[in-house]
Amino acid sequence: MRFLTTIQALPILDSMLSLLAAFGLGTLVGMERQFRQRSAGLRTNTLVAVGAAAFVDIGQRLAGDAEAVRVISYVVSGIGFLGAGVIMKEGMNVRGLNTAATLWCSAAIGAAAGSDLLVEAVLITVFVLAGNTMLRPVVTWIERLPLDRVAVEARIEVRATTTPAQLPAVRRHLIDRLRAAQYPVSDIEVAERGEEAVEVTAVLVSTAVVVAELEAVVAQLARHPGVTDAAWESSALE
C-alpha cells in the first residue's frame, strides 16, 4: 500500500504541469516537422519531449535535483540512439541530420519542463522553431551562391582510363603530376571498365582547389601514352 503515500495533490499537480508543458511545446516543434514531411514528425517529437519530461520528473520526485541531473545525462545519451535511426546515407549524401538534431532539442525541451524550468522550456522551443523556419531562407540563399572552389573544401577525384598493362605507369604518372601541382593524394582506387580498360582514381586530401591547376594536370594526363581518357570531379564533403 506504499502507493497511497505517493498520492499527494501538490506533487501530482507539479508533474501534470510539467508533462502538459512538454506535450504542448513538443507538439509545436512536431507540427513544424510534420508540415515539412520529415520522418520524425508530430507524434515523435511530442513523445520525445513528454518522455524526457517524465523521466526527469520521476527522478526529481524520488531523489531530488541531484538525481534529476543524472537522469538528464542519460536522456542526452539515450536520445542519440533514437536520432541515429532517422539518419540515412544515400551514396555521397546524408539525410536526416536536421531531423535528428530536432529530436535532440525536443528532449531538451522535455528535460527543462520535467525540471520545472518552464520558461527555459518555452525559450528552447522558440529557438528551435526559429532555427527550423527562419534560417531556411538563409540556407537557400547560401546554396544558390556561385560555388567558389578556391574557398570551398570538397572531395576531389582525378581519374585516368588506361589498359591493364599500362596501369602501373599511369598510376605513377598520376601521383607524380598531382604532387608536382602540390595536391597530396590520400587514396588510389582502381576499377575495371570492361576487359581491356581500367580506371585509376586519385582521391585528394580534403582541400580547396584551383580549377585551372587541376585542368592542367588532367591535360598532362591525357597526353600520357596509354591514357585513353582523363577527367576530374568534385563532390561535397559529408
TrEMBL record:
Transmembrane intervals: 12-30, 71-88, 100-130
Q: What is the recorded membrane topology of this protein? A: Multi-pass membrane protein
Please verify whether the record's keywords include Acetylation: no
- Its main localization is membrane
Where does the record place it? Cell inner membrane; Cell membrane
Q: Is-annotated flag, keyword Cell membrane?
A: yes
The cross-references to Pfam families, in alphabetical order and at most eight, read: MgtC, MgtC_SapB_C
Q: Which UniProt keywords apply?
A: Cell inner membrane, Cell membrane, Membrane, Transmembrane, Transmembrane helix
Where's the MgtC/SapB/SrpB/YhiD N-terminal domain? 19-139
**MgtC-like C-terminal domain: residues covered:** 158-232
Gene Ontology CC annotations of this record: plasma membrane
Signal peptide residues are none
Similarity annotation: Belongs to the MgtC/SapB family.
- What is this protein's function? Virulence factor required for growth in low Mg(2+) medium and for intramacrophage survival. May be involved in regulating membrane potential by activating Na(+)/K(+)-ATPase.
For this entry, the protein name equals Protein MgtC
Instruction: Give the organism, scientific name.
Output: Neoroseomonas soli
